[in-house]
Design a protein that fits this description.
Helix content: 25-40%
Number of strands: 16
Radius of gyration: 20 Å
CATH topology of the largest domain: Rossmann fold
Number of domains: 2
Order of helices and strands: EHEHEHHEEEHEEEHHEEEEHHEEHHHE
Largest sheet: 8 strands, mixed
Structural class: alpha/beta
Strand order of the largest sheet: 4-3-2-7-14-15-1-16
Shape: globular
Length: about 350
């Protein structure tokens, strides 16, 4: 049974700030040894998102890494969809706009999968579906990692925390594609009017015309499903079981970075600003739950399970009976189950307050 350390939002005040809480939690989960090159994995938010984790939280972790004798760098990976993080240049620009700079965090930012998102290391994982996964090289080659994840909802996995940060956020573009490829959609030709609006949404050129109707070239499609909402006719149809199938791959892929770093990872989940959508959205919708606090562990599966339970408890107290499951109608424990199956951690935990 893994220990999950919890600092409640109810205890925050002038004598115990979030910074104080991070400083108390860090020594309990830190793998840092003197001289280690330490990846500090974050999500800086898409351009237009305003509820991502705050730079001051990252700065606190960076300072603690330095106090422990480590050499920290802050890191993130490129994405598959249209936006301002498709390549390293845009990602660094977005991070700076959102306040993540060397000056604010006291460490340089390195895009872990390189300029175009193809710099990686293949790691054998031995999953039921995935036999290997490509981990972003700057993460795979670090000595250890501290992962800071903003907990929130997600339209594909129901919940985004440490496992999603591992099984998606630590991968290069090919790795992300292995997780997303089960989402390759089809076109409802009865609804499609051939307007071509969807073409601009796909950066891979997978949406094409066949006569007066669109079709999806599955050889080019990455399956990341930003296209359905772009269609005014709702003619782009994802597979019915995409959420479950993606979660299976997400959970298995999470063990890739863990194996690459020989388990030398400490995890912090920041359970504030609980928006329905992830920080990849270019906007921030109203929250679905009040703030909960900060949790930390050496076990990402236990950490996410505890985070979901804490959010559910908070929502139930406030009369929101469906909990995290009700945000998107997706069971968020599926990807935790598959992460547990491949040895990423355990859903059994002891909450230490």
């Amino acid at each position: 049974m893994s220990k999950v350390f919890f600092k409640s939002v109810d205890n925050i005040g002038p004598n115990q700030t979030q910074i104080d809480q991070i400083k108390e939690l860090f020594p309990k989960i830190s793998p840092v040894k003197k001289g280690d090159i330490v990846a500090v994995k974050i999500h800086p938010g898409e351009y237009g998102n305003t509820t991502h984790i705050r730079p001051v939280i990252v700065r606190t972790v960076v300072d603690m890494v330095k106090e422990a004798g480590g050499i920290p760098f802050v890191t993130e990976t490129t994405v598959l969809y249209k936006g301002m993080r498709l390549n390293a240049a845009d990602l660094l620009w977005t991070a700076e706009v959102n306040g993540f700079t060397q000056a604010s965090m006291n460490a340089p930012i390195i895009v872990a999968d390189g300029l175009l998102g193809d710099d990686s290391v293949n790691v054998e994982i031995g999953g039921e579906v995935l036999d290997e996964i490509s981990v972003a090289s700057a993460i795979a080659k670090a000595d250890c990692m501290i992962m800071i994840s903003h907990c929130k909802g997600h339209p594909g996995s129901g919940f985004g925390g440490a496992i999603k940060n591992l099984g998606m956020g630590c991968l290069d573009k090919d790795g992300k594609t292995r997780v997303h490829e089960v989402g390759r959609p089809t076109i409802d030709t009865e609804k499609c009017v051939g307007c071509g609006v969807c073409f601009d949404q796909c950066v891979w050129g997978a949406l094409k015309m066949d006569g007066d109707k669109a079709y999806v070239d599955h050889d080019l499609c990455r399956g990341e499903l930003s296209c359905p909402e772009s269609c005014p006719q709702e003619a782009i149809i994802p597979p019915e079981d995409v959420a479950e199938q993606m979660q299976i791959r997400l959970g298995e892929a999470a063990v890739g970075p863990i194996k690459a770093l020989s388990g030398r990872i400490g995890y912090i989940n920041w359970i504030f600003d609980l928006t329905p959508g992830c920080d990849c959205f270019n906007f921030s919708a109203p929250v679905f739950s009040r703030d909960v606090g900060i949790v930390a562990s050496c076990d990402p599966v236990a950490l996410d399970m505890a985070s979901i339970d804490l959010i559910d408890r908070t929502m139930h107290e406030d009369g929101e009976c469906d909990g995290v499951h009700g945000v998107w109608g997706i069971d968020p424990v599926i990807h935790l189950d598959y992460a547990e199956r491949v040895g990423a951690g355990s859903r059994d935990y002891e909450l230490v307050e």
